[in-house]
Amino acid sequence: MIFGSAIMVDDKGGLTPEDSVQQDSDHPDYEYRMASLSMSSSDVVAVTSCGVARHKFDVEPLKRGDYTHHIEMFEKSISLSRYIKASIDMDSVSDRIYCITNKDGKMVAVSPSTIQVSIREIIDDETQNIYCGEFYFDDENEKREYSFKQGDNSLSISLNLNSESFSQIFERLSSGDDFIDLSIHFPAYASWLDSMAGVWPTTYIIKPKRDDENFAVLTRISSSKSPSENHAKSDSEPDEIDIFSDDDDKVELKDLDTSIKSIGDSLSTHLSVGKQMVTYLTVISICLVLLTIKVFI
Q1: What residue ranges are annotated as transmembrane (predicted)?
Q2: Which H helix or E strand runs over 282?
Q3: Which residues pair with 216 in a beta bridge?
């Protein structure tokens, strides 16, 4: 586990905190391997985007004119695309993930402030393939020449999904589902100590700036009308009843009293019937004895 912002260095094909490098060690603290991560959304939207027209490039100065003059400046550009955007509930992320930023010439592992996921539909008429996506880290330490906006250390994950699978999720979201759960696989630097000790959750470090390491594949996705178990339930959601709770509001004493009385009445009724049966059997036994005596006299 990484505490705060740790300075990392390349070590034996992986990464190791600067103050933990050991020359006699056979492995780095974080080994490069395939990792998996599951997460749930805090909110999600299904978006349909329609392209209509495209402005023709014209080097001439803009001139005034009538309707025909202006409409000739554009040409049709009809296109239709769909995508899903989700903000991730950070408490639902299955493992700890860190991104490498360059600060004062050193690699620093920082935890993303937020995680956003965008899933784009890929139209493929011939076969339903799988597709790679990628990460984008909005690095607060990155100096941008043409932007006045400072990075906020948010992590964006752009994923692609084949049309058939995408349509099923998109239609469910359009019909009222409010949450998605998803799993991804991606290359990362994983904690060697966590994996050896079988510790969960484990720690992953990624380098979004390296093209040869930056890819992710969507391996599972589902939608639902209510949050998954990964979400912390609010106090206002009484969809589970804890019968062991000390909260008096959740235990209706009068209902318990009514149930106890009902059981008592039922037992009393059965007891009364039992006494009557014993009386009847006693009378019948006496009659049989008297009848036997009379026969032999």
Answers
A1: 277-296
A2: helix 253-296
A3: 133
* Structure-token pair, residue 155: 């992590």
For residue 280, what are its two tokens?
A: 């009847």
Report the alpha-carbon distance of residue 38 to residue 160 in Å, rounded.
Answer: 16
Tokens of 200: 């969960």
pLDDT digits (tens, 9 = 90+) for 82-136: 999 999 999 999 999 999 999 888 999 999 999 999 999 998 765 678 899 999 9
Residue 122, beta-bridge partner list: 162
Dist CA 30 CA 107 (whole Å): 14
Nearest to 99 by CA among 144, 153, 143, 55: 153
- The distance between the two most distant Cα atoms of the chain, rounded to a whole number of Å, is 141
Q: What is the pTM of this model?
A: 0.71
Task: Enumerate the domain spans of the chain.
Answer: 6-224, 251-296
CA–CA separation, 30 and 178 (whole Å): 36
248 in helix, strand or coil? Answer: helix
The helix/strand count (H/E) of the chain reads as 4, 12
Q: Per the omega criterion (within 30 degrees of 0), is the bond before 201 cis? A: yes
Q: Phi first, then psi: what are they for 33, rounded to 5°?
A: -160, 175
User: Quick check: 25 and 40 in contact, CB under 8 A?
Assistant: no
Residues 6 or more apart from 230 whose CB is under 8 A from it? Answer: 38, 39, 40, 89, 91, 92, 94, 181
